[in-house]
Amino acid sequence: MDGMFNVKMGDRGRLVIPAELRERAGLEEGRALILIETAQGLVLVTRDQLRDRVRAELADLDLVGELLAQRRRDSAVEDAA
């Protein structure tokens, strides 16, 4: 599934995604895509791919536990004052 494709930016900033890549990715006309600017460059993803990416990045985090711990620390500071 690796691939490198050379594309050129057209008028008004338009990019043409090569047909082979559109077919493999299941992209159809009108499909919403998200362009992410990162320190390494630009990343073009579908909404489903972005959702999966965010879930993977958050998978090992205990956000509720961290929030509760912070609330307890804040409460302890308030009680001490």
Short description:
The protein has 81 residues and is α+β, with helices and mostly antiparallel strands. It has three helices and two strands. A hairpin with a 2-residue loop joins strand 1 and strand 2.
Q: What percent of residues are in strands?
A: 5-15%
Radius of gyration: 21 Å
Q: Biggest β-sheet, characterized?
A: 2 strands, antiparallel
| Secondary-structure content class | alpha+beta
DSSP E strands, number: 2
Helix content: 40-55%
The residue-averaged pLDDT reads: 90
* Poorly predicted sequence stretches spanning 5 or more consecutive residues: none
Query: H/E element string?
Result: HEEHH
How many helix segments? 3
Number of separate structural domains: 1
Overall geometry: elongated
Terminal Cα separation, in Å?
Answer: 59 Å
- Widest sheet, order of strands: 1-2
